[in-house]
Amino acid sequence: MSDFRPLSAQFSVAPQIGIEDVAEAKAQGFAMVLNNRPDGEEPSAPQGDDIAHAAAAEGLAYAAIPVGHAGFSHAQIDALDKILSHATGPILAYCRSGTRSTHLWALTRARAGDDVDAIVDAAAKAGYDLSGLRPMLDALAGEK
């Protein structure tokens, strides 16, 4: 069963999705699947190409912004910002648990000037705790 968790009207996150979840994403109105998991991180999980092919078969866009154990970079935030600015509909992002996807979204939205309290609240409602990321969110928001 799909575990899609909305962070906003245009962006939801999920733990690792399977091929069957791509059809469900299409049925729920998503326009893009965004992979935040590096290939090979879990060899038994569907890899990026598997999900990309399933997305193409469903008529969904696909993109990958891998976030590994090294953490986040401005290049990854820039990449998500570009995807968000060109999105033609709702995006479903996934990683192992949904946490990295949530963190990347939160960092991107904070840097864009969104209210940090609202970002933290949206993540909490989806089951993700951003308290450890709060200083970085505040710093990025302060750059605006």
Describe this structure in words.
This protein is α/β, with parallel strands linked by helices. It has one domain: Protein tyrosine phosphatase superfamily (Protein-Tyrosine Phosphatase, Chain A). The model has no long low-confidence stretch (mean pLDDT 95). It is globular and about 40 Å long. Helix 4 (99-111) runs antiparallel to helix 5 (116-125). The protein contains 6 helices and 5 strands. Helix content is 45%, strand content 14%. The protein has a 5-stranded mixed sheet, with helices on both faces.
Q: What share of residues is helical?
A: 40-55%
Order of helices and strands: EEHEHEHEHHH
3D shape: globular
> Helix segment count?
6
Rg for CA atoms: 14 Å
CATH topology: Protein-Tyrosine Phosphatase, Chain A
Specify the biggest β-sheet. 5 strands, mixed
- Count of domains: 1
Uncertain residue segments = none
* Strand arrangement across the biggest beta sheet: 1-2-5-3-4
The CATH class? Alpha Beta
- Mean pLDDT, to the nearest integer, reads 95
Share of β-strand residues: 5-15%
